[in-house]
Amino acid sequence: QVQVVEFGGGSVQSGGSLRLSCTASGYRDSRFSMGWFRQAPGKEREWVATSDRYGNIRYADSMAGRFTISRDNAKNTLVLQMGSLKPEDTGIYSCAAGLVVPQDYWGQGTQVTVSS
Fold first, then answer.
1. Residue 70 has pLDDT above 90, yes or no
2. Which residues contact 56 (CB under 8 A, 6 or more apart)?
3. What is the pLDDT of residue 29?
4. DSSP letter string over 57-112?
5. How far apart are CA 17 and CA 105, in angstroms?
6. Which residues are 78's β-sheet partners?
7. What does the alpha-carbon distance between residue 44 and residue 65 come to, in Å, rounded to a whole number?
8. Are 95 and 77 in contact (CB under 8 A)?
9. DSSP state of 30
10. Residue 34 pLDDT grade (very low, low, confident, very high; cuts 50, 70, 90)
């Protein structure tokens, strides 16, 4: 049984930084993909970034340069470091994992609130 759990989140002022982490347990090894997604109030969920099973990292264009992900394969952990945060970054941030694309297993989500 795969479980995905997020840590971190909270409130920060505009321009600030926050660090989220996610751990996926239950996989036999690190050959799976992990990703971050977010959902702003009243909007659809959007993709933030992915670390795939081959070690490739990709970002959504709107977040590249401000957000950075890093992965620790020994711990099956994915960290999302967010900088230069804006009020429009407010939302629920969720981590997901999957063998090919990160969509099979989801965490409970964590709230990020950026105030102006």
1. yes
2. 50
3. 87
4. EEE-TTTBTTEEEEEETTTTEEEEEE-S--GGG-EEEEEEEESSSTTSEE---EEE
5. 27
6. 22, 71
7. 22
8. no
9. S
10. very high
